[in-house]
Amino acid sequence: MANNASYQHNKIITLQKPETPMTSKPILVALDYDDKKAALNLIDQLDPEMCRLKVGKEMFTLFGPGLVKDIHERKFELFLDLKFHDIPNTVAKAVTAAAELGVWMTNVHASGGLAMMEAAKNALQPYGKDAPLLIAVTVLTSMSDEDLSLLGINVPAVEHVKRLANLTHQAGLDGVVCSAKEASILKAAFGADFSLVTPGIRPAGAAVGDQHRVMTPEDALRAGSDYLVIGRPITKAANPLSALTEIYHSITKQS
Ligand SMILES: O=c1ccn([C@@H]2O[C@H](COP(=O)(O)O)[C@@H](O)[C@H]2O)c(=O)[nH]1
């Protein structure tokens, strides 16, 4: 447990807000393309010193481990965002397969439960310092309080995120996926070493699309996000490279 938080009856009690210096390379570009050539064309314009890349369910289903190899050959670190959610044995094997691909980060759904997350963490032990970072999705950034209540979860999203982050921390994982709206609370509760990976990032004026809990890149970092997952504001821009460069400069200016 981070030394700046304590727990009572599974509730987080915040004691102080820690200093949160910006992680180096906080931008994770979400490559949600159905065309491998188009994705590689964008990647070939990017600098691995400026960002990391994220591949999710669409591209991995279409192009498989070969795409991971193509990305690694281009010297980018990769977040394999497959959000495993299954019984412990199956998830442990899935994260082992991700580790074999040499990815930098991978993830599971925290709602798969403590035993599932512990099994995933244990499966990575043999990889030592070469193990991917393992994080857990709390509440998808596309979901509102109303969406949760339709699932029978009758608390505000932030409360459910806190519960799931608490469980993730207990399981010994490296961090969570949450929205930047919850970042300041989680950073204060779990400390600097528990990574907060935040999708739902939208530069001012950008289309929100299906995201619900959103924040600008600058505000997200100020709130305590460690990694900003940014997809369509870059990949659907008329000029993706200049969209990324603009975001990069906006956040490096503030650090
Ligand atoms: O809660 C979550 C978890 C994952 N994602 C993923 O992040 C990107 C966001 O893309 P945008 O185009 O910037 O909306 C996408 O790959 C999602 O699968 C998320 O949005 N929210």
TrEMBL record:
GO terms for cellular component: cytosol. CDD domains: OMP_decarboxylase_like (cd04725). It catalyses: orotidine 5'-phosphate + H(+) = UMP + CO2. GO terms for biological process: 'de novo' pyrimidine nucleobase biosynthetic process; 'de novo' UMP biosynthetic process. InterPro entries: Aldolase_TIM, OMPdecase, OMPdecase_AS, OMPdecase_bac, OMPdeCOase_dom, RibuloseP-bd_barrel. SMART domains: OMPdecase. Pathway: Pyrimidine metabolism; UMP biosynthesis via de novo pathway; UMP from orotate: step 2/2. Substrate binds at residues 32, 54, 81-90, 141, 202, 211, 231-232. It is an enzyme of class 4 (lyase). Pfam families: OMPdecase. Catalyzes the decarboxylation of orotidine 5'-monophosphate (OMP) to uridine 5'-monophosphate (UMP). Homodimer. This is Orotidine 5'-phosphate decarboxylase.
